[in-house]
Design a protein that fits this description.
mainly beta, Porin, 2 domains, 16-stranded antiparallel barrel, 16 strands, 43% strand
């Protein structure tokens, strides 16, 4: 049975009100000739006394009219307050809370989104402090039926660049098996699919999930997904990366982002997560495929990672380990005319560990949260280079980040942190970040 749209509810109530109103306004029938008049009534009133007036019972039509008026007012108030729109709460099929809204509606269009304004202050004289509206995002979804769902993300970066971050159609066959196709977020790491600002600690994403797992990483493809008990999975076939964009600093430049993507080489990516313990998510993912594309190099690319995210009361613990292995890098360096320390890494490695605690969780009855945190990260994108090349010490980094997230309400966050970057041969570099973010 097709569910009525939110507007159909007050409209149907209004139609019934009009019918009731028309019935209530019909003139009362005149008394028949056989009915006795008041003067002929046997219950005569004694002289000098006021006749007793019996209370008039409420007219059924009038009572029903008032009841339906109250119902109409309540429905219109819900529409005015936006209560017919699903809230941005919880993750569905690996997507962020706001990106999951389309799965929680009965039918039709859903809107959501998020935004981030970031101020960065550097102590390095060679860098200029920056205040940037990094992202303004609009999610537009449409639920055609219980089986078919369209979900899209349109992003404006730095106020002037417009990107389609994802756009896919799901066929939700059953919880254990569904199908997905379009421009897909690759299901790797803890940030790439869940990158809304209220879902992670810190103003900026960890470097490992920027340069080795290059979020936001999206490619054209098809795949399957599902949940079997406490285990969820996603497996996709996508176009491969573009090896000509790889550098000594990582694989981020190899993303094709769905735009006229070279497809001489394809790749497979799969992820498995276990959520059988309340508050726990633990799993891993692997990506393997060719990245040669238009180059005359057979460039096999393997990237894999293991991750853990655990929340218990106010405690938040998160960790990730990632590694990449590339084949025939010496040939790739020759093709790209890279020498010495410019070499692309044959092996790359990154990991981080993070812990935070919501101090407001010690008091009940508040939706606010204040979560101080600390994160340590180690990233080397030239862990190993081909013989005859050398690694650049600037690509062997460690990061200490100390900060806090404050959420006055669940959909708004203010973040601030101090970050110190250590390199193998240089002096530490300090940075302060402050961010205002929202989701809806």
């Amino acid at each position: 049975m097709k569910r009525p749209t939110p507007l159909a509810v007050p409209v149907s109530v209004l139609v019934s009100l009009l019918c009731l109103s028309a019935g209530a306004q019909e003139p009362a029938a005149a008394p028949s000739a056989t009915e006795p008049s008041a003067a002929e009534s046997p219950a005569a009133v004694p002289a000098g006394e006021e006749p007793a007036v019996a209370p008039k019972p409420p007219e059924p039509a009038q009572s029903e009219l008032e009841r339906r008026l109250d119902l109409l007012a309540a429905e219109l108030e819900k529409m005015r307050l936006g209560e017919v729109v699903p809230a941005a709460e919880g993750s569905v099929h690996g997507m962020g809370p706001a990106a999951s809204k389309v799965y929680r509606t009965e039918h039709g269009v859903t809107l959501g989104g998020y935004g981030e304004a970031l101020y960065r202050n550097f102590d390095d004289a060679g860098k200029t402090d920056v205040f940037d509206f990094v992202r303004g995002v609009l999610y537009v979804g449409y639920k055609f039926s219980d089986k078919f769902v369209l979900n899209t993300e349109i992003e404006i970066e730095h106020v002037k660049e417009i990107w389609l971050e994802f756009a896919y159609i799901d066929y939700l066959l059953m919880p254990e098996l569904s199908f997905r196709g379009g421009l897909l977020l690759l299901p790797m790491g803890l940030i790439n699919e869940m990158h809304e600002p209220t879902t992670f600690l810190g103003s900026v994403r960890p470097e490992t999930e920027t340069r080795l797992l290059p979020s936001t990483w999206r490619e054209n493809g098809v795949g399957v997904l599902g949940e079997v008990g406490p285990v969820s999975y996603r497996v996709y076939l996508v176009n491969g990366m573009k090896g000509s964009g790889f550098t000594g600093a990582g694989v981020r430049g190899g993303r094709q982002k769905g735009a006229e993507a070279f497809s001489s080489d394809f790749a497979g990516v799969g992820r498995v997560d276990f959520t059988g313990v309340p508050g726990l998510l633990v799993g891993g993912s692997v990506y393997y495929g060719g990245s040669g594309q238009q180059l005359a190099v057979d460039l096999g690319t393997l990237i894999y990672e293991f991750h853990l995210d655990y929340k218990w009361r106010g405690l938040e613990v998160r960790g990730l380990y990632a590694r990449a292995n590339l084949q025939n890098v010496a040939e790739l360096n020759a093709e790209l005319k890279l020498t010495g320390e410019q070499s692309i890494g044959e092996e790359m490695r990154g990991w981080y560990a993070q812990v935070g605690f919501d101090v407001f969780s010690l008091w009940s009855g508040t939706e606010m949260s204040l979560t101080p945190f600390v994160r340590w990260e180690d990233l080397d994108t030239q862990l190993k280079v081909p013989e005859g090349f050398s690694s650049n010490p600037a690509n062997d980094n460690r990061f200490l980040t100390v900060g806090a997230n404050f959420q006055p309400i669940p959909s708004v966050v203010i973040k601030a942190e101090f970050q110190r970057k250590f390199t193998r041969d240089g002096a530490p570099q300090n940075q302060v970040n402050v961010l205002l973010g929202y989701i809806f």
